[in-house]
Structures are given as structure tokens and as C-alpha cells.
Amino acid sequence: MHIYIVMGVSGVGKTTIGRLLSEKFTLPFFDADDFHPLRNVEKMKNGIPLQDEDRKIWLQTLSEKIRSWNESTGAVLACSALKEKYRKQLQSVPDKDISWIFLHSAQEVILNRLSSRKGHYFKPELLESQFLTLEIPQYGIHIDVNKSVEKIMEEIMEKISNEKEKSQIGLLGLGVMGRSLAINLATRGVKVAVYNRHVENIEVDIAKSFASENKSIYDFPWFDELEAFVNSLERPRNILLMVNAGKAVDLVIESLLPLLDKDDLIIDGGNSHYKDTVRRENYLEENGFLFMGTGVSGGEEGARKGPSIMPGGPAKAYNRVGDYLEKIAARDKAGNSCCTYIGPDGAGHFVKMVHNGIEYGEMQLIAEIYNYLRFHTGSTPEEIAALFEEWNAEIQSYLLEISVDILRKKEKNEFLIDKVLDAAKQKGTGGWSTNAALELGVPFDTITAAVMARNISGKKEERKAAEEEYQPTPSKEGNLQEISESLFKAYKAASIINHSIGFDLMGEASKEYKWSLNLSEIARIWTNGCIIRSAFMEELIDILKESPLENILMHPDIQIRIKDSKPELAGAVGDALKHGFPVPVLSAAANYLMSFISGQSSANMIQAQRDYFGAHTYERVDKERGEYFHTEWKPGKE
């Protein structure tokens, strides 16, 4: 049911208008003054202004009543609600279920009304304190009451009618993800308006066609004119951008700014760089607007049925649109939304960037193992698919699941995988995560190796020319059955290491940027809807809850698994390289592990070299940490 709250200082006519609205909508009417405790009433009778402490129990009572009315009959409530924090406390129901009607006028107009009012305990001399307390809302219906009651009601009803026709959220950009998210929102009862630019011979009637294609099920208000799109939205406005990362986002923002009002919110749902998100948020905040960088993972199907969503930005922005985002997200095993507030400024896009980095590593792992099995053992795609399906009964990886489907797909009785060009692309997030790791000083072996593997795959012509010159002779004498068990153990170990590297980067970023990331909660929202969901991700929820500040590889249960699989990981790397097959991510995982568990590394030689040629100094094992030394290493020099 719906709640109408008629607000404003005393004397604006809240009770009169509230009663008329209750008759109009056949809803019960309540006056907030009737819920004040006796001591508050006595204070006001004696001309003593109420303090926040006085209002505490009163506001709590009203909040509970509003929730109860919303669940039963609906209601019209007359309540001063002068401060934003009071209104926030009263907002105990979703935004869509409550309408604020702000009655106002000049102070002298209201004072004249109060002076002529009889039989009310409110003293006219308290009016000045109310005007000083009043924080004008930047939302709702605003009505100047310096007119007849009939005219006031006419304006209110007209504005209520207009508000009912407005959309709760606007989606800008109807590419694959935008279209799917629009349908997802509409499916879950969110009124969404859609916009796509109209460019002759390039993007023609995109929004119109989308609305037409879905009109039998959904009513999408569609626009290809930006100002009309913005004006179609409830205020404060919520606009979700689904455009390509980079300059396009800035151009859209600049085109929107002249059309927006204070506290309107722009949500960037693309794969933007987290530093761009920080910059945009600061820029918009300076101009009185809100901005959220929101990662969305799940591809086209996830966007349509329920993705994993990673919103970052001001907490107050998430509080406003969190309900919408949580509605459209996937659900975890407990039925909770795979969407959570990640943290301030660029946290949401940073976490999505790392998600994609882990994804790069997992995809490359599968590709390496497929390639090794296919050409070392001579196994068919169907045989490898059967093996992957067997493995996936245990690990329940979405990426391994889709790999099974890929390997079984045929076109004209031939395996389609053999028709796919072996030159991979990347959108940038993998490379960005590598750069972030370098900036933060975090090892990033597997993900960096996966990015570089894609880069070298793109040099198809050079690779073909090099093959002709070098004439490599990879071994084709392997046996699928003989190596599958050890290879599976190597794969699982490498996958654990790849995940630990990604989560380690997020932990370091959280400390550096003071984001207070909840890594366990991030793992939870990655258990469904997203590309890297798996049984291991389910385990990580508890592992990261138990040891949130510790590297995943140090958890006792993980140590047992890694110790058990370490020989197979090293062996798989050695065998693959010996037989002529590159395995960059498997190799990177093995090298990372060996470095991670080595109390003595080779870095002492590096430090000595740096000191030799550059006098960079070094620390000594026989001295206190933080004490630095320089040596003249060249013979004959002291």
C-alpha cells in the first residue's frame, strides 16, 4: 500500500490537506502530533522548542507505524519532518511506496495563519525556530500554500498524477547488456525508461524498436531525445549508464549535466577504470550530483536473469537505489541478493576489475589444459569435454561448464572450436588489474601471465612465420588416461593460487585506499550470477570470514590441498614444456607458489647488484630491519 506524508512547518495546513487527501484516496489519516509523548506536548505548550533527543522516541514510533500502515491499509500522515535525518528515519518503506508532499510559503504568511489559529498547543513564537530547523527536501511534491485550499488540492492531485507516470530509473544505452538489464528491471516491477541516441544510418530507432519488440509484456517509455528522457524520471533522478568505458562515459555525463537537478544520481554500469570513477565522482559531487561506479558481471544471460553487482560510491547513493540493484541481482544459496555495497569512490569498479582479472586466469588455465590434451594426447574435443564434465562434478565452475558445451558444439558435423581463430582479445580490465598490482606492489603472476598470453595470441601472423622458421616438434604421444588425474590436481592448485592472487590485490587496495572491503562478502556475491562462480568461491566465504587479513594460501585447509597438489603442479608444468606446449598460467602459478613458500629468495643478489651500480643501499640479515648499508663492491675499493 502507499503512504503519503504531508510535511512542513506548523501552520502550513498539513492536517487540513492531509484529511482531504485521505478522503480523495480513501486512506486513513493520522496526525504525527498525536504520537508525541506527553512531555513533548508539555514543552511545546510552554513555548519550549523540541530537541533531537525529544524527537527520538516519537520518530521511532512513527517509523514503525508507517511500516505497519504500508503492510495493511496505506495512510496519509501529517508530519513536520523538518530535517533530512528525520525523514530518513521515517523512510521505513521502499521509495516507491512513499510520497512526500512539502507544503511551504513565506514566514510572514505562515505567521499570520498561526496567529489566527485557536485551540492548538503550538505557540506562534516557535515558528522562527522551525524555519531555522527546516531543511528543504530535494525531492517530492512542493506546494506553495499561499492560495485557496481548492487550488492547493488541485495542484497536488495534478502533480501526484504526473509523478505516477514517471519512471523510477532511466537506463541509457541499449546494447546487449543494457537491453538485458532493462528487461530484468521491468520483470521485477521497477518502472524503467530507456534511451538510446538516434544517429542516421548508424543507430536508428534503437529505443523505439526495443520498446516495440517488448510491448506485449512490458511498457517501456522510450526516448531518443535526452531532455525528454531526463524529464520522464522521478526526482531525485536515477540514471543507469550502459555505454562503453572511456571517453563515451564522459561525453554522456557532460550532455546530462545541464538537464539534472541537485542530488540526481548517475550510475556507471560499464567496465570503467576505477581511477576514472574516482575522478567522475569528485567532479559530479562538486556540482551537486551523485555518482556510482557499479561493476556488473554475468554477460548477457546474467544481465537478463540476474548478474552479480558490485556498486561503489557514496553510501547515501546506494541507500537510494540499493533496492533496485538487489532486486535484479542473482541469488546465492541462501536466497540473498548477489549485490552488496562494496565501498566508497572507485571500490566497485576496482573489485569488478579484479573479478575480470581472476576470470582471465581461469579462462587461460582451461585453454592451456585443453590445448595440451588436444595436441599432446590427440584426444578429440568430445573426449576432452567428457573429462571436463567429470572434473566439473567436483569443482562446479561456470567457466568449465561452458567449455564443455563449446567443445561439443559442431557445425556441419565438424567441431566448431577448430574453426575459431586462435587470437584472443581483451577489453582492458585484465591489463588494468596488472597495472594496479604494480602500483600497489602486489605479485600478480597468474593474471599477468593470462593477459600476456592473450597479447601474444594476437600476433597470429608473426607466430605463423616463427613456426615456419623454428619448426617446433611438440610431442603427440601423450595418453589422456595416464595424465588426467595429475593434471586435474595441477589445475585445481593453479586455480586456488589464481584466486588467492586476486583477493590479495583487493586486500592491499582496501588498506591503501581505506575502502574497508569485506572480502568474504565479495566472495559471496560472486557465488552466482558472475562468470567466476564455482564451488571454491562458496568455500571462500567462510575462509575469508575466518581470516580476512590473511593470504588464502595460509588457511589450514588450503595448505593441506596445496601441499598435496604441489608435485603435480610442478610436474604438469615440466611435462608440458618438455613436450613443447606453452602453459603460461600453470607455470606462473607454480613459480608464484615456489616464491611464496621460500623463506630465502634470490632478492639478496638483486639488492647487492642495485647497490653495486647505483648505491641504492641494502638491509642486512644480521642487523635490525630498517637499517641500511652501502658497500664498495669492486675489488680494491673500500
From TrEMBL:
Q: In which pathway does it act?
A: Carbohydrate degradation; pentose phosphate pathway; D-ribulose 5-phosphate from D-glucose 6-phosphate (oxidative stage): step 3/3; Carbohydrate acid metabolism
User: Tell me, what is an example of a GO biological process annotation in this record?
Assistant: pentose-phosphate shunt
What EC number is given for this enzyme? 1.1.1.44
Please indicate if the UniProt record lists Metal-binding as a keyword: no
Entry GO MF terms: ATP binding; gluconokinase activity; NADP binding; phosphogluconate dehydrogenase (decarboxylating) activity
The UniProt subunit note reads as follows: Homodimer.
Protein's job = Catalyzes the oxidative decarboxylation of 6-phosphogluconate to ribulose 5-phosphate and CO(2), with concomitant reduction of NADP to NADPH.
Put simply, this protein is called 6-phosphogluconate dehydrogenase, decarboxylating
- Species the sequence originates in: Salinimicrobium marinum
Q: What is the lineage of its organism?
A: Bacteria, Pseudomonadati, Bacteroidota, Flavobacteriia, Flavobacteriales
